[in-house]
Amino acid sequence: MLEQQGSDPTKPAAAATGFPATTEASSYAPVAPPQSKPTVDWSTGLCDCFSDCGNCCITWWCPCVTFGRVAEIVDRGSTSCGASGALYTLVCCGWPYSCFYRSKMRRQYGLKGNCCTDCLLHCCCESCALCQEYRELKQRGFDMIIGWHGNVEQRIQEVAMTAATPPSVEKGMSR
């Protein structure tokens, strides 16, 4: 053991771990757990399918399309609608795969629910769960047909248009 200058030779040298060399319990402050975001209700109910009959019909006859659109937005464009829809079809009915995306979506947007209810909803009522997720993303301002990249481009154009418009000057008192 190497002795450090000014250290007590009766105590062993501290290892270079990056942790403080003190052993006093009072020197460690308790660490507070991370605060989670407050959860909010879904914007529509599970059985509010009739507010969007077009998507309801597509989801009933071809759920891979609705799932692909939802997954593309939830993944923020890292997977395409087509790839997600194809994988959904290959998983055979897709509900184990789609319940994972419901959980991911809930965490992203702070929506109420838990993993158990996500799986139960997708296992028992896949079409209603997919329609609810689709409607939620629409309510949050996404155009589900143009996908993630289309939404990003659309928002960039909107910002550019508002930045290019000069402020209006009111006529009134002058010096």
The CA-CA distance between the termini, in Å, is: 83 Å
According to DSSP, the number of beta strands is 0
Write down the secondary-structure element order.
HHHHHHH
Specify the overall morphology: elongated
Mean pLDDT: 81
Number of helices: 7
Low-confidence stretches: none
| Fraction of helical residues | 40-55%
Pfam family, one: PLAC8
InterPro entries: PLAC_motif_containing
Characterise the protein shown here.
- Helix content is 50%, strand content 0%.
- It has 175 residues and is an all-alpha fold.
- It has a domain at 52-142.
- Helix 2 runs parallel beside helix 4.
What is the topological layout?
Layout lengths: L52 H9 L1 H12 L6 H10 L4 H15 L5 H10 L1 H14 L7 H18 L11
Helix pairs in contact: 1-2, 1-6, 2-3, 2-4, 2-6, 4-5, 4-6, 5-6
Structure summary:
The chain is an all-alpha fold and 175 residues long. It is built from seven helices and no strands.
Throw out a few tags for this protein.
mainly alpha, 175 residues, single chain
